[in-house]
Amino acid sequence: GETVKDVGRKVAGSAVIAAAGGVIAWFAGVRGIRDLAIVTFAVAGFAANFQTIVLFVRRRAIATMGGYLSHAGVSIMLLGILISGVYEKKGQVTLERGRPTRVGRNTMTFTRALFVTEDGTVKRQNELDMTRLADRRAKQSMEIEVLSPRGKVWKAYPKIYMNAKTNQMMANPDVDSSAAMDLYISPQSYDPGTPARSEGSLLAMKKGEAKTVNGVGFKFLDFEADRSQVASARPRVIVTAHFLVTTADQAIEQAAQLVMPLGAAGAQGPESPETPVPGTKARIRMKRVSATEGTCEIEVLGLNPAGDVKAATVESFSADITTKPLISLVWAGFYVMMGGAVLSFLRRARDSRRAALA
Known about the structure:
The chain is α+β, with helices and mostly antiparallel strands and 358 residues long. It has helices at residues 4-27, 33-58, 66-86, 133-136, 305-308, 328-357; strands spanning 89-96, 101-103, 106-116, 122-123, 139-147, 153-156, 159-162, 169-172, 174-177, 181-191, 197-198, 201-206, 210-213, 216-226, 236-246, 251-261, 275-276, 283-290, 295-301, 309-310, 316-325. The strands form six sheets. Strands 2, 3, 4, 5 and 6 form a five-stranded antiparallel beta sheet that branches. A four-stranded antiparallel beta sheet has the order 1-21-10-9, with helices on one face. A four-stranded antiparallel beta sheet has the order 12-19-18-17, with no helix packed on it.
């Protein structure tokens, strides 16, 4: 058995290691008294159990050290939970395609939007083979190159896609795990970007209602629907809306059309040619019409040339970035604890068999 001197030596050794652990934690940035106490006691518990585990190994009594191994695992888990939970960092970043952006200690570059098949193959959309089940189940992903301070490059593929069954947007993060830290990239939104374009003023009006754009008035009078082409080779309904356009010099009636394709072509949406308004720089384009509500929406171009021109927007990807330091300790402690539990179970099973045979 152990003497009082042996026990005192173990306690003193554990206390020294615990104090060293507390000092290291302080220099690592741990400031809360409660957090420092948890670190110190967890290190002390690990040190005490580790000394006993070493003693069992030397005596070749590994089968009887399960309890101590489990206690050591709990100590390791406590450290991991504290450090990864209290000192995790979260932030949101918007990455423009092709533009390296500093995020914490890493540099991230959004390189392209693509698809990851169910078997893990990365493909562009035109490379998907819809005769393969794995390709049919491919999910849209963003390719993010993560450059560490040491020059290591990790390609992340966080997924953001539409669930076909629920019709809801789904997001799956990608994780880079290392002994020091876990890095999570959780997608929030994707903007494919738009080219430079002309986009006029939008006017929503009820029948008889009038609105003004830069001194030119537009009054919605009425509309009629031509259904004579419903059974033609290109089935469609043509809606003609009538407006009274008023300027300082004149008031004239102007018609604009909205062509609504039917059948398979209907997926492309309605089309409306630009209709010039004589005597003005205005052009009208029908956007929507509702027979039940008696309303319409038109787009007026040409009256505000500077405002009509919309600048191009870049393709971008927004994500939540989370870093969890030393979360590997949680898993290491869990496995050590489970190893101790297995040893204890095997020992009890062996003792039970011996008792039954006695």
